[in-house]
Amino acid sequence: MEETRSSYSYVPIISKASDIIDYIALKRGGVAAGEIMRHFDIPKTSCYRILHTLSGCGLLSFSAADSLYYLGTKFSHFSIFSDHKHQILREASIPHLRELALSAGETAKLSILSNLECYVLQRIDGPRDVKVRVEIGTNFPLHAGASSKILFLSLDESVREPIIRGGLAKYTRCTITEPEKMRAELNAIAAQGYAVDSGEFTPGIGAVACPVTNHLGRTIAAVSVAYMTLGTEGDPVDTFLPCIKKAAEQISHDFISASMEPTM
Q1: 67-72: long-range contacts (C-beta < 8 A, 24 or more apart)?
Q2: Cβ atoms within 10 Å, residue 195
Q3: Chain centroid to CA 108: how far?
Q4: Contacts of 229 (CB under 8 A, 6+ apart)
Q5: 92 and 77 in contact (C-beta within 8 Å)?
Q6: Which of 89, 105, 129, 195 sits a CA distance of 20 to 30 A from 244?
C-alpha cells in the first residue's frame, strides 16, 4: 500500500525546535534561554538540550557576552545561497518586466521576501510621463500592498500568525488591520492566484500582483504593476492581470531553467 504524509508519525520535538528557531528569528535581537522556557512552557533540562543541539548543528549560536541565543552560522550560508538565487531571479526578470511595463503602460516590479518584509528586487518604469516610481531596495510591510500580501501568504502559518496577532499597523483607510479580515484576504488570494492593492500603503497608489514560483511550485517572488488610482479607467484586474500573469509565468520558467544549469 502506498504511504502518504498523513501515515507517518508526528515528531513533536522537531516541531518544537522549529518553533524556537522561528521565535528567535522574529525577535532578531537575541533571546535568553529563560524567555524561551517561559514562552514555550518547556522544562529547563529539555529546553537546554534543544538549544544545545540546535547550536551544535549551526542553526543557533550562543553569545557568552550577553547570554543570548541568535540564529546560527548555517543561516548565513543559506543567505549567501539565496543571494546567488536572487541574482539569477533579477536577471531572469528584466526582459519580462520590460515587456510588462510596455504592455501595461505602468511601472512593473519584482519583489521578494527579505527579513519578513517585501523587498523590491527589480523595477522597470512604464512609458507614461506621470508614473509611480518605486526605488529598488525599498521595503514594504507584508500586510499592506499587492506584492506584500503575495509574499505574506508564502510564509508558513507558524510564522505568519504571530505577525497577524501581534498587531498590523494602519497606513491608510484601506489598510487591513483586523486579524480575521487579513486571514480572509490571504485565503482569497490563495484561491484566486493574485492580489490587489487599492491604496493600502500609500493613498492613491494601487497595484495588482501575481506570484513567481520555483520548480516545486513554491512562491519565491511577486510580480506587480503599480498605478495611480486617480485617472485609471476600468477594473485594474481586467486591465493588468493577463499581462502580469504572463510575466510571472515567464520569469518562473526562466528562473527555473537558469537555476538548473550547471555552474563551472
Answers
A1: 67/32, 67/33, 68/29, 68/30, 68/31, 68/32, 69/24, 69/30, 69/31, 69/32, 69/33, 69/36, 70/24, 70/30, 71/21, 71/24, 71/25
A2: 26
A3: 18
A4: 198, 199, 204, 205, 206
A5: no
A6: 129
Q: Tell the burial category of 19 from Cβ atoms under 10 Å away from its Cβ (0-12, 13-18, 19+).
A: middle
Compute how many other C-beta atoms are within 10 angstroms of the C-beta atom of residue 72: 19
**151/82 Cα distance (integer angstroms):** 16
Strand bridging mode 68-71 / 219-228:
unpaired
Residue-range domain boundaries for the chain: 6-71, 76-260
pLDDT in tens, 35-83: 999 999 999 999 999 999 999 888 898 888 889 998 886 775 565 456 7
| Strands 117-124 vs 68-71: parallel, antiparallel or unpaired | unpaired
Return d(Cα 211, Cα 70) in angstroms, integer: 31
At residue 170, φ and ψ (nearest 5 deg) are: -100, 125
The cell for 55 is: 547550536
Q: Write the single-letter amino acid at 201.
A: F
Is residue 248 within 8 A of residue 234, CB to CB? The reply is no
Give, in words, the CATH class of 76-260: alpha beta
CATH of span 6-71: 1.10.10.10
Residue listed under C-alpha cell 519583489: 111
